[in-house]
Design brief:
There is one protein chain. The chain has 287 residues and is of the alpha/beta class. It has one domain: Glycerol-3-phosphate (1)-acyltransferase, CATH 3.40.1130. 40% of the residues lie in helices and 16% in strands. The chain has nine helices and ten strands. Strands 1, 2, 3, 4, 5, 8, 9 and 10 form an eight-stranded mixed β-sheet that branches. Strands 6-7 form a two-stranded antiparallel ribbon. A hairpin with a 2-residue loop joins β6 and β7. It holds the Pfam family Acyltransferase. One of its GO terms (molecular function) is 1-acylglycerol-3-phosphate O-acyltransferase activity. Pathway: Lipid metabolism. Keywords: Acyltransferase, Lipid biosynthesis, Lipid metabolism, Transferase.
Amino acid sequence: MNRTARALGSSGRGALRLTLYLLWTLLLIPLQALAVARNWRLCRTLPAFYHGACARLIGLDVVVRGQQADGPVLFVSNHSSYLDIIVLGSRIPGSFVAKSEVGSWPFFGLLARLQRTVFVERKARASVDKQRDDIGSRLDAGDSLILFPEGTSSDGNRTLPFKTALFAVAARRIDGRPLTVQPVSIAATRLDGIPMGFAFRPFYAWYGDMDLAPHLWQAFRLGGMTVEVEFHPPVTIDGFSSRKALAEHCHRVISDGVARAISGRPSVPAPAQEATSPAPAPTAASA
């Protein structure tokens, strides 16, 4: 069997990984449920430990670049797959912002609720203020949140336009300081050391009308995948004329990060925020 064939899948490997994933998940569900019910600090730290183990079980090699800002932070990321949840969840001690339908999904909806996901109705304009307040109250409590502002998943080769409505929370001030917003780019780059390219990337990306179960089974069968995550310099709304300008900045920085990762070009520091008035420089920068 050649290298490409090995990378593309083994049913035995898939069955073993799936079994271990289910056992690991079922083992931790009661503990996380109790931690959430009692509001223990564990409910905020256990998910990162859980996702880290899941990434190793599934064969995801997560390569991280840049410096992660201290919370509370609104992390803004591109989105191409349910695997992004495992990758980012293993590195960021926070909760996700997800569309409301996710909460009703079998099994995965339960996992989302146990991670204290903030569910939003993206199509209801009348609920924007409520969603902003729900997100803001979690940030006020010291939690970091992870937002996918594309509103859907992409093919992983590009970053879709960002929806600006949820950037309204960026105007919130935490203890008198503007909320920290950190762009994060994520890209699947290699499959068993082979550059993924357009041909292989759909094995990671889940988008359009793809069926979940076959895609998930294929992901468990695959060889090891390298996923690159880059934390870009954090910014605040104070450096921009509007939330739209902030969203455009995040989109540009993330798009550039994804393009560099999938092309294999070395990472370079992202441009500084385009301030409309003098503002302090960001306190953290890419490594």
